[in-house]
Amino acid sequence: MILVFAAMEPEVRACFGGGAIGPSRDVAGFPVYEANDLAVCQTGLGRRSHDVATSVLEHFKPEAVLSVGTAGGLNRELRAGQLLACSHVHHASMRGTLEETPAFSDERLLTLALEVAGGAEIEARIGSAVTVDEVAWTSADKADLHAWMEHDVVEMESYWIGKAAAAADLPYVALRVVTDQAADELVETPAISADGTFDVGAFQDWIKDHPEYIPMFAQQAERSRRGLGTLARFLNAFLPRLVGSQAS
After folding, report:
1. Total structural domains within the chain
2. Cα–Cα distance, 15 to 144 (Å, whole number)
3. What HEC string does 23-41 produce?
4. 177-223 per-position pLDDT tens digit
5. Tens of pLDDT, residues 219-237
6. What is the rounded CA–CA span in Å between residue 15 and residue 23?
């Protein structure tokens, strides 16, 4: 079986074709959604994903571990909707230290991901990611991160999940689709909680008090729609292929 970790519900849905998902079951205190030989765990955001992955991995014996989801572009060549298969992922806390050992993706899984993306006519490339504990809200934040090691994207979970997979001696790959681009500015709202859930009511209340951000959120919603659509289309082709390759 394949074990996938995704931070937020829309990313979990993308693992099941982008539509409705069935009920989850509790595994080590965290929600896991299962279908056939696939299990998808919703980790929530950031550093907590290491504890989630470590705990959940104790209850499964997967043939491969995946970290999937959205990411912010650091490389200015990347556009919303492009898929990045991450060869390696650093954590931003390594900057300025002697500790620079990243989480590495499995070469076979990287090759398979690009092969499947090509067959599905999805624009994809191999690159690198940097995991952060706080969202890179501004274009200046992203430029600063890119200046370190010229990573292509920024996200919040893949390093921790990769390290948990390595500790369990399991093949791992990080797959991220770009939603916000290098020049895009983001605005913090109280609608997203640490466990990766989105509170529609809290967002509606907040945006009523901040109508000046409506155009920005409309643009970001379109980029997110495009990115999540790409992710769902890719995973709809990749996950069955991966499950089949493990079975054979």
Report:
1. 1
2. 32
3. CCEEECCEEEEEECCEEEE
4. 999 999 998 887 777 777 777 778 888 888 888 888 888 888 888 99
5. 888 999 999 999 999 999 9
6. 14
Determine the 3-state secondary structure of 217 from DSSP.
Answer: helix
Question: In angstroms, how far is the first alpha carbon of the chain from the final one?
Answer: 12
| CATH assignment of the domain containing 154 | 3.40.50.1580
Q: What is the largest CA-CA distance in the chain?
A: 56
Range of the domain at 62: 2-247
38: left (phi over 0), alpha (psi -120 to 50) or beta: beta
- Dist. CA 7–CA 76, nearest whole Å: 24
- Amino acid at residue number 16: F
Residue 235, H or E segment: helix 214-247
Which tokens belong to 112? 């398979």
Tell me the two tokens of residue 188: 């913090």
The two three-digit tokens of residue 134, written as one number? 């706080």
**CA pair distance 239, 37, nearest whole angstrom:** 10
